[in-house]
């Protein structure tokens, strides 16, 4: 396929609460990816960074910040901000540059450091700001995850045990991932004993925020072949589409959905439309997918994503889970990295971390976490303000 | 209880009558509803209207989903001392084809709710200031 690019290298700084500057994580991830690729830094002609909005000006121009830290060598730079999809958008920018023939090999990198406590909105009386309104009315981030989770329970019969089973599954596999932050094997009893945050979700159903950094070295297929890496995993598709009006699922930070009352307007659920473009672009279907890395901001959300990716019919993800199909060794393993449950979210790095995991899996380098014979993997994530992404990687 | 006057927590977002309504807008060209009010541009991709009328939204609808808040939210939320957990619901309005979030009235817990239940809009205290009691819209199960 002419629209594919090769993934030559992947690298990550382990997730955690290290207390360092974000640049340090990005540089560590970039150097690991460069070494993994066997590409000298001076050969990289495009640096595409995922921005962080929590680290001041250097974060807004992350591409240039990382390029300077690695040593200015005259590469062109780009910085992308798309909330949780920032990494995918930075990857898409590199792919465009490569497919346009303007660059042979590019570095894509994102990193973040996370402040302590709540991310509260600015003060004052500001009813024009939806983020201010929802906090004033007492609606926090877990509210939204809990609304989705409760809907699953009432509509499909999902249970608290199902949600706990997602945490148990992800913690068991994540305990084998040296880059994960949380490496303890939790039990269903541990989840049940954790504090209720937003019914039906408990503290251990909801992911934390973390420091971390992830990087990829990507190139044209021709460049990969010149390096003797013609069989490297390839990025087969990137979807970064917006929602389609009328968006029918209430999303952070809104207090209401779009209205689908006008003639000719239909209700659409954003998460389920995201992967459609990716499948179409890659020319494959859900039946071709061997593993998935999805954005489990909550345990229940992992089940939503499985259905949004069409890996199970609507309402049947929990049955797949109960059957062991989404565990390592099952029909369609989901989040064999350990997922956000074991990592915690590092916004501009997270979508790239998902692609790193698929890269190692498709190369057969995932060790104790290896999905046997993995040839096709898909990612899915969603952030604020209509951002989201789905990336397909294949051998 | 306090004898302070009642005042809307957010000015102009709902009527103050005994049977209150949320106040939204409707695009005069395509009929799309907006809450909060939208007056500058229609977000229907097939419509480029800039003309809107203010409308009262349906004051009853069906539960889309529900949860509660067991931890005190950060500011600008004004929490009572001690913090009291409260219930939250998203309610689907039939005519407007939209879901609106809000707290559920005091005394109703998640155990009392179910997706599809009919709810109506009422006003209840959100918090108190030195001068008045700030009220906002909340959802209340319709007695069957």
Give the overall shape of chain A: globular
Provide the gyration radius of chain A in Å. Answer: 20 Å
The low-pLDDT segments of chain A are none
Shape of chain B: globular
Q: Please give the largest β-sheet of chain B.
A: 5 strands, mixed, barrel
> How much strand content do the residues of chain B show?
35-45%
Work out the strand percent of chain A.
15-25%
Order of helices and strands of chain B: EEEEEEEEE
Distance between the termini of chain B: 30 Å
Oligomer: heterodimer
Q: How is the largest sheet of chain A built, in terms of strand order?
A: 3-2-4-7-1-8-11-10-9
Greatest contact between two chains: A-B, 49 and 48 residues
Strand order of the largest sheet of chain B: 5-6-7-9-8
> How much helical structure, as a percent, in the residues of chain A?
25-40%
What is the radius of gyration of chain B computed over CA atoms, rounded to a whole number of angstroms? 16 Å
Number of helical runs of chain A? 14
Total helix count of chain B? 0
Low-confidence stretches of chain B: none
Concise account of the structure shown:
Chain A is of the alpha/beta class and 395 residues long. Chain A has helices spanning 22-37, 57-60, 62-70, 86-99, 130-136, 141-156, 160-174, 188-193, 221-226, 270-282, 299-308, 317-322, 339-343, 347-363; strands at residues 5-16, 46-50, 76-80, 105-112, 196-198, 201-202, 211-219, 234-239, 291-294, 376-382, 388-394.
List the helices and strands and how they pair.
The complex is a heterodimer of chains A (about 400) and B (about 140).
Chain A: E1 5-16, H1 22-37, E2 46-50, H2 57-60, H3 62-70, E3 76-80, H4 86-99, E4 105-112, H5 130-136, H6 141-156, H7 160-174, H8 188-193, E5 196-198, E6 201-202, E7 211-219, H9 221-226, E8 234-239, H10 270-282, E9 291-294, H11 299-308, H12 317-322, H13 339-343, H14 347-363, E10 376-382, E11 388-394
Parallel strand pairs in A: 2-3, 2-4, 9-10
Antiparallel strand pairs in A: 1-7, 1-8, 4-7, 5-6, 8-11, 10-11
Helix pairs in contact in A: 1-3, 4-14, 7-11
Chain B: E1 6-8, E2 23-27, E3 33-34, E4 52-56, E5 60-69, E6 86-93, E7 98-104, E8 118-128, E9 133-141
Parallel strand pairs in B: 1-9, 7-9
Antiparallel strand pairs in B: 2-3, 2-4, 5-6, 5-8, 6-7, 8-9
């Amino acid at each position: 396929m002419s629209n594919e690019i090769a993934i030559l290298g992947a690298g990550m700084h382990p997730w955690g609460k290290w207390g360092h500057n974000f640049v340090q994580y990005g540089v560590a991830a970039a150097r690991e990816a460069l070494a993994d690729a066997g590409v000298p830094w001076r050969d990289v002609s495009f640096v595409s960074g995922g921005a962080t909005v929590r680290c001041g000006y250097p974060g807004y121009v992350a591409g240039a910040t990382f390029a300077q830290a690695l040593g200015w060598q005259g590469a062109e730079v780009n910085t992308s901000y798309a909330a949780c999809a920032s990494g995918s958008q930075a990857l898409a920018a590199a792919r465009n540059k490569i497919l346009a023939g303007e660059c042979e090999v590019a570095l894509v990198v994102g990193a973040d450091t996370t402040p302590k406590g709540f991310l509260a909105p600015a003060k004052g009386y500001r009813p024009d700001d939806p983020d201010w309104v929802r906090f004033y009315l007492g609606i926090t981030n877990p509210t939204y995850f809990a609304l989705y989770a409760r809907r699953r329970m009432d509509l499909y019969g999902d249970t608290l045990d199902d949600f706990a089973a997602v945490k148990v599954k992800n913690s068991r596999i994540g305990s084998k991932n040296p880059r994960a932050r949380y490496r303890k094997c939790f039990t269903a009893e541990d989840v049940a004993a954790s504090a209720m945050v937003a019914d039906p979700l408990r503290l251990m159903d909801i992911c934390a925020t973390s420091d971390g950094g992830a990087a990829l070295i990507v190139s044209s297929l021709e460049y990969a072949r010149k390096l003797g890496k013609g069989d490297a995993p390839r990025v087969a598709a990137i979807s970064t589409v917006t929602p389609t009006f009328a968006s029918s699922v209430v999303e952070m930070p809104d207090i209401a959905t779009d209205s689908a009352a006008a003639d000719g307007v239909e209700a659409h659920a954003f998460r389920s439309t995201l992967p459609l473009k990716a499948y179409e672009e890659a020319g494959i279907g859900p039946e071709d997918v061997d593993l998935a890395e999805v954005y489990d901001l909550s345990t229940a959300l992992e089940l939503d994503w499985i259905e949004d990716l069409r890996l199970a019919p609507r309402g049947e993800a929990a049955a797949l889970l109960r059957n062991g199909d989404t565990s390592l060794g099952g029909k369609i393993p989901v989040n064999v990295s350990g997922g956000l449950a074991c990592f915690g979210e590092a916004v501009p790095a997270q979508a790239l971390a998902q692609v790193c995991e698929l890269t190692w899996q498709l190369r057969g380098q995932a060790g104790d976490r290896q999905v046997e014979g993995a040839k096709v993997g898909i990612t899915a994530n969603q952030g604020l303000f209509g951002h989201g992404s789905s990336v397909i990687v294949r051998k | 209880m306090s004898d302070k006057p009642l005042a809307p927590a957010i000015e102009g977002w709902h009527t103050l009558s005994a049977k209150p309504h949320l106040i939204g807008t409707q695009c005069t060209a395509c009929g799309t509803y907006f809450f909060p009010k939208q007056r500058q541009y229609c977000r229907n991709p097939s419509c480029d209207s800039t003309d809107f009328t203010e409308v009262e939204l349906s004051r009853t609808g069906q539960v889309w989903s529900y949860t509660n808040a067991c931890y005190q939210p950060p500011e600008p939320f004004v929490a009572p001392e001690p913090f009291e957990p409260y219930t939250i619901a998203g309610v689907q309005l039939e005519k407007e084809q939209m879901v609106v979030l809000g707290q559920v009235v005091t005394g109703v817990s998640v155990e009392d709710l179910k997706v599809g239940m009919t709810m109506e809009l009422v006003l209840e205290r959100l918090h108190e200031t030195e001068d008045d009691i700030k009220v906002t819209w909340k959802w209340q199960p319709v007695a069957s």
